[in-house]
Structures are given as C-alpha cells and as structure tokens.
Structures
1.
Amino acid sequence: MNMQPAEIKNGIFMFNGSISRNLMIEPMASHMYFLEEGDEVILFDPSCGKGIAKRVEAHIRRRKKGQVKWKKAFLIAGHSHMDHANNFFLSDVIGAPETHIYLHEEGFQGGEVKNKPAPFIENMFAESSKYFNPYLAFSFPYNVLMFFLAGLDALSPRMTRKLLGVVGSLSWPDPVNGSVEPEPLRQDDLQIMNLGGVTVRGWRVGHKILLPTPGHSTCSVSLFWPEQKALFVSDADWIGNPVFVSGSLKDCLHSLEMLKALCRAEQVDTLLPAHGLVKQGREEILSYLDFHIRRLEVMRNEVLAAYRLSGEDKDVRRLTRLLIQESPLFRMLKLVNYPRQVVFVHHVVAVCLREEGLLD
Ligand SMILES: [Fe+2]
Ligand SMILES: [Fe+2]
C-alpha cells in the first residue's frame, strides 16, 4: 500500500480506502480527503481503521515538519456510518488552536455519534424487522447461523439483536476518538445561498460549504469547495442506495438532482466520492450523476413491475427473490451489495414499496 496520498488537485489529497469483499470478515474504509487552504485544514470522511489513520498521521507529521502551521482544523463526517465517522483522534495529531468536528445532527443519538459497530448492526436489524424477517434474508453459508437466530428472535428479539451485534461487529474497529467533542450540524442553522444561479441550503465552513444530501442516510452531507470546483459526496452515489431501510430513494434522487444542478451551472469540475474513482470534467460528472438518477428510477420501476407480476404481493422477501431471479439489475445489486449478504437488496425493495405507499 502506498503511504503517500494522491494529490487530486492543488490542496486536495486523497487517502485511498477499501471496499469490503465481505462485511463479516473485513470492514469497509471510505476514502479520506485532506484539504489544505492557507492556515486551514479539513479532513472530510475520516474513514476507519488503523491502516488509513497511520497513513494520514504520517502525512500530517510530514506537513508539520515542512513548517506548516494550521490555525483551524475541521474534521467532517459525510455521515455517521462506521466506515466514515471514525478516527476523530486525528484532530489531536493536527493540533490546531481552533478545531471542530462536524456531523449532521441526525448522526447523533443521546449526544453520542451513531458510529459504534454493535449498536449500528442491532439498530439496522431492528429497522429491517419492521418490513421483513432479516434473519431469513441471507444465503449460504450465513443462513446456517441466521436460521438459529431466526428461532431465537421468535423468543427474544432484543437478545437476538444483541447477539448479532456482537458477532457482526467482530471485524469492525471501534471508533477512535480524541479530545475534541463532535458538534451537530443543525437543520435550523441552514442558510439559503446562491451558487452560480442554483439556490441551495447549506452550512458555511470557512470558504467551503456543506450541503445536506440525504438518501443514503438521513445524516448525509456533501462538501463543496467553490474555488476548486470540487464536490465531495461521501456515499450519496453509492451503487446500492437506498441501502438501509432508514434511507430514502426519493431523497437520493433529490440530492443527486441538486448535485447535478451545480454541475450544470459549471460550479463543479471534480466529483470525489467516498468509495470509487474521482470523476473529472463537467461531461463525465453529469453522465455519472445521470446514470445514478436513472438507476434509481429503473430500480423503483423494476420493484413495481415485480409487484404487479406477483399479483400485488407485499411480502418483501418473496418480492426480492422474484427480482433476483427475473431482473438482471437486481442480480447485479445482489453482488454489489456485498457478496452473499442479500439483506441489503431487501432494504431497497422495502424502501421502494414504502415510498410508493404500499407498505406502512
Ligand atoms: Fe461508505
Ligand atoms: Fe454509508
């Protein structure tokens, strides 16, 4: 692994993350973006795990040896998921006199960031259980363990989720915090602004702007650096969206349309996702965002087509099985949304049905 970050453009460095081959065995790690402008530094999506944190620490120390003195530091999590909202201790390594760690207010629960692996998994299963039995949504070999949990769930749902949280979080590192407390970005503090003729709502962070881009999660934000025409979108473009039942296909579309409007208005020429390749140039970015918008629309239509074909069956598990059999798109999604963990495809189906008013 190359210790040095990639310099994308002046002042923007990318530390490469990794996409998990299997979440039960290895965690995801988002890319971490390191932005420097004068005496200000921003870490967007501080990622997770020691591997990437060590590379960033080495970079910070190299920059400090080069006589750089940062007065302000901002660590901003694009959302609260475990592969993004982590490594907050890096703010102490930077050691700027003024430091803030920001995350959308929806990413907190009881004053704590919702980034701890076991509660995250417990919560995900609690949410999924409202729409289908998630323990019966896995294929071989995980279904062997899951059948046992499905039985236990019938006796004690709470204890089953706790057990699953422990087992499912074994591969995930615990968050590493520093001395600075994360602060919530509040909806009430959003300001209306005009960016090249496009009206948006956002929060200002120095010369940069944070834009709410919900859909993947309710707490998703993107970072926009107007002078560099750079847009950091976290997981707003994740191919499996809407990947959790707390997500929203409608919000995903709305967020992508807003990002597309900024690009059409020639405000953006570099799009930097948390997973995957950096896109450059207006046409490349527009085509990429269009692909995701069409993908979401087609996905919703495929779910509705399966619903009609099934004689208006509202059973999420049966509909998912039908979609995976009949729809090449959903076959692909089953592979993309983590090998052998079909539960994420069930989420897509549940969200589509709910947003079409077919599920409560
Ligand atoms: Fe992610
Ligand atoms: Fe995520």
2.
Amino acid sequence: MGYLKHAKMNTSFNLLQEEIKKCTKCELCKTRTNVVAGSGNPQAKIMLIGEGPGYYEDQKGVAFIGKSGQLLDKILAACGFTREEHVFISNIVKCRPPENRDPTPAEREACLPYLLQQIELIHPTIIILLGATALKGLIDPRARITKERGEWRTWHHYLVMPTYHPSALLRNPSLKRPAWEDFKKVVAKYRELVDPNHFSAHC
Ligand code: SF4
C-alpha cells in the first residue's frame, strides 16, 4: 500500500473508531461503562470477530481481556501471532449486553454497520469468526457453528474460518483440540497468502 493511501486509511479508521466510541444507536449505550470499538493492528491481515464485550472488556474498553481473551492470546501466541502485529479483534456488538446475555436482533442490526466498515477499511485476507453469534450475525442466521467450524468459506471475497469462541473452550475443554485444528489451518493459509516465512513453534 502506498504511503498516501496508508495515511488516508488510518485517518478514516481513526474517525470510525471515534464515532463508535460516542455511539448511542441502541439500548446498550445506557448500561455500558465503555464502548469496546476493537483493538489490534488496523493494517493486520487477520481479523477476529467475537460476540460482544464482557465485564472486563466493558470496564477497560479493550476487546478480549478477560479469561476468554487470555486463552485467545495463548492460542494466537501458539500460532506465532501477536495482537500488535498480526490481528485486529472486533465484535458483533461494541457495548456489553447486561449480564452477558446474547445481543438482541435489534442491537446486532444497529451495530453491524460499524463492523462492516471496519472490515472494509482493514480489508483483511482472513476473517476468523469466534462462535455462533459471530457466524450468524455476519454471515447466516441459520448457520450452526458445530457444523460450519473448521471449513473455509468465502464471504464477499473474504476468506472466512468459523471456529469456537474461547469461552466455549473454557466451558468445554474437549473443544480445544478441534479449535486448535482450525487455527492450524489459519496459520497454513497465512503462510500461503500473506507470509511464507511466518514462524510458529507449534504448527
Ligand atoms: S452496541 Fe453498537 S449500536 Fe449499540 S450503542 Fe454500542 S456501538 Fe452503538
């Protein structure tokens, strides 16, 4: 990407992030502490999309920093990925649903344009959907994560890998192995399409 194009993208992305942080388009603005607009490298080739912020994310305004986030960091590290360099992490909704309930269809609909704009500006090579809400919210409301995970699919010219949400791995450790197989496919695709020299000690 040329320098000017790069700078223009950064400006647009920062403006979008600021807009999201002030948003009051759905009821979740009334109960949130902080908006969690997303974090990581906006020039990354991998975008991870989860469901919505939890308690710790809401407190700090940073995506995936609770127990699920710590597990995600371990998985990313095993893949040789860091948040600072390789990924941008976002969610279907940017404000915490009270008591960690599922976001309602109205809340998802209000927030989805932000995610679509983030995807367009980041323009990742690979999108990883973490869990059923991300899969249903972005791609197909009828899709089932148990059926779709681990299989590449194309969505608007983006390569998409659905896999389990880290919180599901914490609740049910038997899902860790299949999830790891999914991430190994991501590493292989990253080497194929982005960086043939990408290093990971584990795969
Ligand atoms: S969840 Fe999304 S649409 Fe709703 S207030 Fe937060 S940023 Fe706005």
3.
Amino acid sequence: MRTFHCNRCSQLVFYENVRCERCESLLGYVPELAEISAFEEAGEGRWRSLHPRAADAVFRQCHNYAVENICNWMIPADSPDTLCRACQFTRTIPNLGTPDNRLYWYRLETAKRRLLYTLAALGLDVPSCQNDPEHGLAFEFLEDSDDGPRVMTGHDNGLITLNIAEADDAYREKVRSAMGEPYRTLLGHFRHETGHYYFNKLIVNDPRWLAPFRKLFGDERADYGEALKAYYRNGAPADWQASTISAYATMHPSEDWAETWAHYLLIVDVLDTSTSYGLALLPDDPSEPTLTDRTPVEDASFENLMKRWFPLTYALNSLNRSLGMPDGYPFTLASPVVDKLRFVHRLIAAVGR
Ligand SMILES: [Zn+2]
Ligand SMILES: [Zn+2]
Ligand SMILES: [Zn+2]
C-alpha cells in the first residue's frame, strides 16, 4: 500500500488512522480519490476535505465511523448512503452484545478495507452485493453458537463467511499451530476467499483462461468433498513445497488457486508499501541481495516483481528475527509456484482496468 500524509501538517499517516497524531485533524479515507484526507469541520456533521485534489468538497463520516468507531471511510455529503462503500459489503456483523465482539468486528473490517484497497489498486472490479445483488461480493461475520453447526470460513457464490473467532489472536494462533501452518491472518483469509470469487468471475466461463488454469492447477471439477476428507486423513504430501505455496493448497485445485491468488496479493501489497517508503537495499557486497528498482507495482512486469521480491524477503525476515518475532515471510517459492503466480499476474493484467 502507498503512503499517506496529513494535508494540514504533512505528517506521515497510516491507512487505518482516524486522527493526525501531530495536528489532531480528523482523517478519513476518500475512496473516490484513493486517498486519506485531513478534514476541517463544516457544520452539521459535515467535513471539508483539505486534500488538494478534493477541491474543498464536503463529506460525512460513514455511520460505522461516526457512531461505531470501526471504520474510517468518508461519504460525499450529498450521498443518500449512511454506510461507506467498504461497509456496504458486510451483510452480517457480529452480535455486539457479547464482550470482545466489537474489537473483533473492528479487526475484520480493517483487514477487509485493506483487501479492498489492493483489489481497487490492481484495477479489479469489486461490486458490492448492494450494487449488484446477483454477482456482487458480500461478507458475513458469524459466531459459533452452542446449538448450531460450526461456522466455516469460506466462499459461496459471492458470499464470504468468516468465523469471527479468527479475529481472536489466541484462537487463531491455536488453530495455526494445530494445523502446522506458518502463516494465518485475517487479511490472508480475505485474500484467499476472494480468490474463489474471482475464479468464478474471471476464469470458469472463459476458455482462454480455463485451459491454462487446468494445466497449472489441475481440474477444479475434482470431487471437493472427497479431496477434503483425504486431506484431513492423510495430510499434504511430504514434498508439497516443490509444487504449491502451502500444504493446504495440495487439497484441491480450487484451494491451490485461492492460496496462490492470496499470495500474489500479499506480494503486491508488501512491494507496494516498501516502494512507497522508498525502501532500498544497498549492501557493501553488491552480489548480496540488492533492491533499488522503484517501478510502481501496477506498472511492473512479473519478472520485475519477482526480482525485487526475493531481496525484500531476506531483509524482512532478518528484521523480524532481530525483533524476536517469527519470520514475516515464512514461504519458499519453487519454480512451479512462480509459474502459478505468473498466471495470476497475467490474468489481473488482462482484466484490470
Ligand atoms: Zn496533521
Ligand atoms: Zn464504513
Ligand atoms: Zn478456499
């Protein structure tokens, strides 16, 4: 993700911020500009943007910003909407009568907004269920109950369901460890599930993409229930790293696709962030991993992205080890995985606006 600044005092601010830490201006994200803007009060709950590209336009806070404190997006003041574009995607929110659920809801929406930013930056069309009831994307954040069936995180025909327990760090870490996964995050879940959505939207009905897809990932018509049972019975093959990005990706071609798609979004977001900060790697020994290229990720070739990605991951993991944290990037990319990532890149380059 790119960097943002307060329009009043130039302080570097994060995408998630609601106030400038230095000058205390209200901050909000304006999706029409793809920018965080600083605002000044314009009366009656309205806020005038100080962003140079906004031409003094007046906005309101999303209801979930002004009242619920879980959003930071803005709506044009004359819009009839009460929820911002990001919040409109959520069809079911957690029961706020339960302690902790508001925090979980905040974490879920925050991860979802970052996902939406990346999809938009890649030029991918993301209609919400509100704008396009038939083909739009919707989210349900559900909770396990004592009497009902367990809530499964997954995707079904544009509806992404997430078990809100995934927003509980202790629960998520327990599952991650029990499943032997090196990486499990809310953002990763959202990226993965949108992979299933875009498969239906972009590949399954287009022979130009479906044939090369099946060559790389296998036949997605393979029995899913059988594959699931076999995976939980036998686990992944010992040499799964030679062909897939994760153990889970070996379960079924559809899961291999969703895992690869999610990984591509991860690479693009991280590279975009490091490029925006002007991060460079200039070791004394130039034969060591070096990074100086600053081509915007949306203009970069796949080869260019990969060339920059490897040095960055060395530095990223070394920094994490110095922090006493596990590797930030606990993956290796075997060449069949790189080929699959290249397919995702080509698809997005072809269909992105
Ligand atoms: Zn400021
Ligand atoms: Zn909102
Ligand atoms: Zn999946």
